[in-house]
Write a structure and sequence with these properties.
alpha/beta, 6-stranded parallel sheet, 3-stranded antiparallel sheet, 11 helices, 16% strand, disordered C terminus, binds adenosine-5-diphosphoribose
Length: 251
């Protein structure tokens, strides 16, 4: 299982939320990323999301997301869970992606509920309107809103049953997504964190690989590909990572 956050898109030029140059240093969550802010100022909220859509439309996936797409091809049993709304994992080639916080390219009507994907970097008018006349909102999960139940349940199931769990480029500060590394560890998965600095969940990891995701993940993918070639296998049928350490009465 690979669990990602904003850090995996950082090397493509997508700002993260916290840390240096994080969006929340410059913008106030309560002004832009809550249902209340949208109800009060739909145009202002849309100007911010439009700025982010326009920015994301001009960039390409970096080697980090590209390596995760390779992982999906390596393992028979693979699951990608992301907090990111930027769509970079889709563009990198991952097919099965559980998007916990929605998708910035989705537009959803607050009146009739109609939802559609719209990749226009700049929308003709802000706020955009639905054919029913209702307001369209970005298809993302705002603070104070529930995560999509089916998606979260699938993510929990994958977390509870995975053997190997990568936590990549997330500060692990936003609940309930931040619980996934904790649950993976509790369920005896081998937990590996990839981050430029230890996250709030680093203590749950068996290994913390400090560095850029765009450098570490391709190296991991290359060594995995080499290992599989050595095993004469196209795909890994079972984890070749040392789970025995955990099953001998570990934590
Ligand atoms: N490689 C690996 N990790 C990186 C890189 C990089 N190149 N650059 C930054 N990071 C790490 C940072 O050290 C930090 O731990 O990525 C993390 C980004 O953390 P946040 O900005 O908090 O983003 P994220 O964890 O995804 O936030 C969770 O919060 O604001 C909400 O809905 C939003 O989905 C988001 C959620």
């Amino acid at each position: 299982m690979v669990f990602t956050g904003a850090g995996i898109s950082a090397e493509s030029g997508v700002p993260t939320f916290r840390g240096q140059d994080g969006l929340w240093n410059e913008f106030r969550v309560e002004d832009l990323a809550t249902p209340q802010a949208f109800a009060a100022h739909p145009k202002r909220v849309w100007e911010w999301y439009s700025w982010r859509r326009e920015l994301i439309s001009r960039i390409e996936p970096n080697p980090g997301p590209l390596a995760v797409a390779k992982f999906e091809r390596f393992f028979l049993s693979f699951c990608l869970v992301t907090q990111n709304v930027d769509g970079l994992h889709d563009r990198a080639g991952n097919e099965r992606i559980l998007k916990l916080h929605g998708d910035i390219w989705e537009l959803r009507c607050v009146s009739c509920g109609l939802s559609r994907i719209d990749f226009q970097a700049v929308l003709p008018s802000l706020p955009p309107l639905c054919e029913c006349g209702g307001l369209l909102r970005p298809g993302v999960v705002w603070f104070g809103e529930m995560l999509p139940v089916d998606v979260f349940e699938q993510a929990m199931h994958a977390t509870e049953s995975c053997d190997l769990f990568f936590s990549v480029g997330t500060s692990a500060q936003v609940f309930p997504a931040s619980q996934l590394p904790v649950i993976a560890r509790q369920r005896s998965a081998y937990v590996v964190e990839v981050n430029i600095e230890p996250s709030a969940a680093a203590y749950e990891a068996h290994e913390v690989l400090l560095g850029k995701a765009g450098e570490i993940l391709p190296a991991l993918a290359a060594s995995l590909q080499g290992a599989m070639a050595g095993l004469g296998r196209g795909k890994v049928h079972q984890p070749s990572f040392p789970r025995t350490r955990e099953s001998s009465g570990g934590t």
